[in-house]
TrEMBL record:
Pfam families hit by this protein: DUF488-N3i
Record organism: Marinobacter salarius
Protein's UniProt name: Uncharacterized conserved protein YeaO, DUF488 family
Domain of life: Bacteria
Matching InterPro entries: YeaO-like
Length: 122
């Protein structure tokens, strides 16, 4: 099984990261594209704008956000899900990159849970 790491976009890339996949809809403020060292920017895997605004990174809304976001992913026919599945199939380790300050309550955490529950398309 592929190891899935999570890393803030502001943290230094490492060789051990494997392919780094940005999973936010908006590019992280102040991060140069050259220094981000990304394999892909999978912006369509990010929560909808409405859901992101509703959540507002409020930990009290985490459970509701996570549930709604996982529903969005499960009901999605997003091409980025197939791209993500391809990375998971081909690599021993990938790193999901996100910009949020809260490292415990963000879409990358929920997306990792989605992958680990094997809900990716085959």
């Amino acid at each position: 099984m592929t190891e899935i790491r999570l890393k803030r976009a502001y943290d230094e890339p490492a060789r051990s990261d494997g392919p780094r996949l940005l999973v936010d809809r908006v590019w992280p403020r102040g991060v140069a594209k050259e220094k981000a060292s990304l394999a892909e920017w999978l912006k369509d895997l990010a929560p909808s704008t409405e859901l992101r605004k509703w959540f507002g990174h409020d930990p009290a809304r985490w459970d509701g956000f996570r549930e709604k976001y996982l529903q969005e992913l499960a009901s999605s026919d997003r091409a980025d899900l197939c791209t993500l599945a391809s990375y998971v199939d081909k690599h021993e380790r990938i790193t999901l990159v996100f910009a949020a300050k809260d490292t415990d309550h963000n879409n990358a955490v929920a997306l990792k849970q989605f992958i680990e529950a094997r809900q990716l398309p085959v």
